[in-house]
Amino acid sequence: MGVVTTGGRHRTTGDHGVAGDHGVAGNRRAPAKGNPFLPLVLDVAVPLGSYYLMRHFGVPLITALVISGLVPAVRVVLSMIRERTADGLAVAVVALTVVSIPVAFITGSAKLLLAKESLGTGTLGVWLIISAMLARPAMSNGIRAFLARTEGSSAAWDELASGSAEFRACLKAATLVWGVGFIAECVGRIALVVVLPVNTAVWAVNIPVAIAITACILVQGRWVVRMARMIGQRVAENDQAAAERPLVLAA
User: Fold this and answer.
1) b/e per residue, 7-20, with b = 16+ CB within 10 A?
2) Mapping DSSP to helix (H, G, I), strand (E, B) and coil, where does residue 103 land?
3) Do the beta carbons of residue 8 and residue 238 sit within 8 Å?
């Protein structure tokens, strides 16, 4: 068995020359994959488009709302099955959808179906604020999906998240921004559902979502940019250390 030191990572080679991760690197998370914007498309564009398409072909109002609202719930369930984890908020969203559908059919309230989405984002906002206060910022995965998309940046994220108080403070601040933003979105959505007719509210409720997301992206920028710079600096430091480390081959 031999040891090869290259590219800043230690690897062990067995008798057949097969290399594997060794040491701390084995505990690091893989770089983020996939399109981070896909959930927005599935949770907003697809339900909205399917609703108007069904209404165009004469599908009853409540039925169209129910079917279009199932798309985000199905995405959450599939994600839970694929990742084999049950996120508390995801479970709450699915449960809220399951409960609201029969209630809507019984009461005939389309506005109830529209308002339930705001309960989900409002709960998310409260949860984000609590997680930040408990020093376990729930936006970590969301921000990491944008900043740690290579092996080097993923390793740098892990190192900074565990060893840099400044990095953790930035992550906490960004999470608080999203928490406040989602609560504001919740209030705005409920207000629109109450004052507008259903056919108008079904698309108008996406306005607070767009405003909240845009505002949060802009406001969180000062902390996310700082984190990106810290990650870039750490990647450069790791690359420099790897370049200066001699290549060792041991039989």
Assistant:
1) ebbbbebeeeeeee
2) helix
3) yes
Give CA separation, 121 vs 50, 78, 115, 161, 186, in Å.
21, 20, 10, 26, 6
At 118 the pLDDT is 73
**Alpha carbon distance 61, 200 (integer Å):** 12
Rounded to 10 deg, the angle between the 110-133 and 61-83 helix axes is 30
**Closest by Cα among 131, 209, 210 to 171:** 131
Q: Are residues 29 and 158 in contact, defined by beta-carbon separation less than 8 angstroms? A: yes
Helix, strand or coil, per DSSP, at residue 64: helix
Contact 121, 189 (CB under 8 A): yes
pLDDT by residue (tens digit) across 182-226?
899 989 988 998 899 888 888 888 888 889 989 999 999 999 999
- Provide the token pair at 201: 């509210």
Geometric angle at alpha carbon 43, from 40 and 47, rounded to 5° = 130
Give the span between the Cα atoms of 203 and 119, in whole angstroms.
Answer: 17
User: Considering only CA atoms, which of 103, 122, 123 is closest in space to residue 113?
Assistant: 103
CB atoms within 10 A of CB 250: 8
Query: What pLDDT, in 10s, does the model give residues 100-159?
Result: 666 666 666 777 777 776 777 787 788 889 989 998 888 888 888 889 888 889 999 999
215: exposed, middle or buried (Cβ count in 10 Å: 0-12, 13-18, 19+) = middle
Question: Is 7 a residue whose pLDDT tops 50?
Answer: no
